[in-house]
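Continued from yesterday's entry.
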Amino acid sequence: MSDDLKHLGIYSTKRVTYIGTGMTRRKNVQKRYWAVSLDDEGKVVTQSLNQNLVPSGPKRVINDDEFHERFEFEPDIYALGMDEL
């Protein structure tokens, strides 16, 4: 994977789980933030953000269908130094 990436911005994914049964059943929504870029071949590259909104962990290439289906743009999250990611 090339280090020459075009940054698209910060996106999020949501994971919904249910805890309990019957009247005590509760919905739990976990939101995770991602730095999303395009590589030189036009493939979507994601990298998760930690609690300080800093990219951490491995980069992962995903297909366009997964990106459009699961990822939601987060325009309200401003990441300083996106050109350095």
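--- second protein ---
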Amino acid sequence: DVDMNATHKILIYVDSTGCTSCRLQLQRWKAFIAEVDSVCDQSVQFLFYLTPKNVKEAYYITRRDDFTYPMCIDSKNEINARNHFPLEDLFHTFLLDADNRVQVIGNPIHNSAIRELYLKTICQ
């Protein structure tokens, strides 16, 4: 579901390189989403874009991890074609404001300093 009142969006892009499950880290995302929901009064929309090598594997991973948040399976990698993301995974997660302007770049589940910056920016 699209939250039209969201004050922030977190865009997560996972391409087809490497181990999809290892790169997605859905359990850690679920914990971060729960933390954002519990400590911030703001509405945050999480946008997962996945370009998997194997779509069936991606569906299996989401079921296995009981991940119920919407995920866009972008089999043609159109989001990357439009945005030209860097190769480094560090730069594939973005905190966006309500107007889709980038506020923070980095993955909050892999870096505690980035996590704190996300929370500070969202909860202000």
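Helices lie at 20-24, 26-39, 55-64, 78-83, 112-123. The longest strand covers residues 8-14. Will compare against the first tomorrow.
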